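Hey all, quick one. A colleague (J.T.) asked me to put the KG4 job into the tracker so the inputs and the structure tokens live in one place instead of scattered across chat threads. No bug as far as I know, just bookkeeping. Sequence used:
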Amino acid sequence: MLILAFESSCDETAAAVVRNGREVLSDAILSQADMHAVYGGVVPEIASRKHVEAIAALTDRALTEAGVSKKEIDAVAVTYGPGLIGALLVGVNFAKSVACALGRPLIPVHHLRGHIAANYIAFPELEPPFIALCISGGNSLLADVRGYTDMSVIGATRDDAAGECFDKIARVLGLPYPGGKPMQDLAEGGDCTKYPLPRAKIADSEFDMSFSGLKTAAVNLVHNAEQKGETLDRSSLAASVAAAISEELVPRSVKAVQRCGYRTLAAAGGVAANKRIRYDLEKACRENGIQLYLPPLSLCGDNGAMIGCQGYYEYLAGTRADMSLNAYANLEI
Ligand code: KG4
């Protein structure tokens, strides 16, 4: 079964062709990151316009690279939330028109379910149940993945996402957007114990997280140093931030796997590309006898293949949308 999939929830436009869920025939992606870097973050209006400009050409590219014609497509999948509403609407409306023109079923896909599904592409043996640690620019949560389309959140950030935390601290350090990778590069050789940053404890929830206190503490450190004319050890600050974020995520992930009685953890989302977090996850899982799945860097960020993969499992579960499908900025997993 061939699925043509679209992703446009933030600042990447993507179209992909996926066969039977796990075989990626093409994945055409156009990132707008350079465009938004000028402003230090994503400008929603610009994102929507750029998606409009790119999506048709990317669709042609995806079909050409896959070596399939439009008529061979069996279903159309699209991210319908969560994300930037204007950006999502571009993908949803384009997917609707393609599904309508081809007379094929339309499958709505949750963006984070897509990120989790990136693991199915990378690891053919992976099957639910497992715990998914979803860490991206807009979301940070732990999901109990009982089945391909049966999952629930068992812990989530109460405020900022881990990616937002990296991005905002990067901005005050004068690093380009998106700041996660530049922060990682800056942290090389830094002393992660030099700056004691706060670790959040949520009184009434074992698995919820918080990143805003950490973000504010790091931003204040930078501003205070600037005001006093002191020189910050930028490399050690970046390393201390990564260590603090990792400590927020990794022990909770291990505990979640143990609590649910599983043996498997899968990471997902752009922040799952982070070296320190990957290292800490590997160490913690090794020590606790947990099988860890870390998607390759190419599948951590937003892409269309992951939507095609999850779209396949949604299709098998009977998930369908009609022409009234809307986009949702916030959407339960
Ligand atoms: O999943 P993603 O591509 O888009 C969303 O759905 O949000 O994630 C983007 C986020 C950004 O905040 C970016 O700074 C972060 O992922 N990121 C990283 C790294 N690479 C990307 N954060 C930390 N370390 C990295 N190496």
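Adding what we noticed when we looked at it: Residues 126-299 form a domain with the Nucleotidyltransferase; domain 5 fold (CATH 3.30.420.40). The pocket of KG4 is lined by residues 10, 136-138, 163, 166-167, 178-181, 184, 269-271, 273-274, 301-302 (CB under 6 Å).
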